[in-house]
């Protein structure tokens, strides 16, 4: 760490001596044996400003306590059919690891439709995946590699990105805000692949609005990005949408197993079974109601609201320029 970071860390740690028992317990679930590294993430997120990092950290602990985040992996999963609907419409999964041992998270930005179940289930699912990553995947990777691994890489597939995405802007912004405030600096690099013109048009105007720290994490790759991604991960760890389609099996069951978004993929099977096991353990101690988990959506940060508004304007420009049939009539971007 830089010298200023060392000094900032000392100040930060001194402010934590007054944590109450609830906050200490949830902090243990957060850091998984690496408290210093966890605090560094909050310092980075606030550019080394100790008072701001401390407030962000305390707010995060309070959010975890109020929303019982420590028990979210013991929340019995929603019914299988509904859970499959979530997985089929909120496209996200883990395809493998980089050569350095970082988990590879794939996100189908363009083809995610949402709207199949209540928004609260999409938020719940996202938080559960975050917690499973932080409490199971990353600690296991750390143990296997004999060194601390606390971040992941994300491959964002823009295939199918269209104007109808604006319908889900409020939900997506809320999920992003939850990540920014409570899971800061967990992504090492964002790889953008299969970017259509509408993304390129938006990126040109959105990029200058992002913090430099965030801009440096984003890499827009050509096409499916296979050539560049193979520099940081093996072929087996590539998300399915980055692999050579001619080499993928045509058998439906096997295709689903290779598709890291699918509930039939090994990652989602392990996550689902883990939550069922944790729920059984918790229910043997104290009853948990099926619908007891609910996280109030946070208010949008003003800077994020500006970015969202910019995206909406650029989408409208693309619509006007290309005369797209996917009209914005009736689309209201709420919460911005």
TrEMBL record:
CRAL-TRIO domain segment(s): 82-250
Family annotation (SUPFAM superfamilies): CRAL/TRIO domain, CRAL/TRIO N-terminal domain
Cited InterPro entries: CRAL-TRIO_dom (IPR001251), CRAL-TRIO_dom_sf (IPR036865), CRAL/TRIO_N_dom (IPR011074), CRAL/TRIO_N_dom_sf (IPR036273)
PROSITE patterns: CRAL_TRIO
Protein origin, superkingdom: Eukaryota
Gene3D superfamilies per the UniProt record, alphabetical: CRAL-TRIO lipid binding domain (3.40.525.10)
Protein name stated in the entry: CRAL-TRIO domain-containing protein
Species whose genome carries this gene: Arachis hypogaea
